[in-house]
Amino acid sequence: MTGGLRVDHLVTSGTFSLDGDTFDTLFEGGPGATGRSFSSFPTIVDSIRDRLLTLPPETLVHTGHGGDASIGAEAPHLQEWLTRGH
After folding, report:
1. Which residues form the domain of 32?
2. What percent of the chain shows pLDDT beyond 90?
3. Dist. CA 28–CA 71, nearest whole Å
4. What's this model's pTM, rounded to 2 decimal places?
5. Which are the contacts of 22, defined by CB distance < 8 A and separation ≥ 6?
6. What is the per-residue pLDDT for 73?
7. Most buried residue, 7, 17, 62, 66, by CB count within 10 Å?
8. Domain contains 77
9. Domain annotation covers residue 20
10. Can you give the pLDDT at residue 33?
11. How far apart are CA 30 and CA 35, in angstroms?
12. Domain count across the chain
């Protein structure tokens, strides 16, 4: 904690938390960058399931592009992402 701002680094496939908000990996509507040659859908989904969806539902997700989301809004869709495979 520095000056009232909490910075957490979560060891995931590119996500970190700043004062309870997360960035990248999880986007509004599902996982990010899963179709690229340098990415791994299973790794990204494991990170989301094991590291992000364990955060409080009110945790905000800010991405570098697109809309913001929350853990609580995205968590119910995990099985949909697994079924579609991306």
Report:
1. 25-84
2. 17
3. 10
4. 0.69
5. 10, 15, 16, 52, 55, 59, 60, 61, 62, 71
6. 94
7. 17
8. yes
9. no
10. 66
11. 12
12. 1
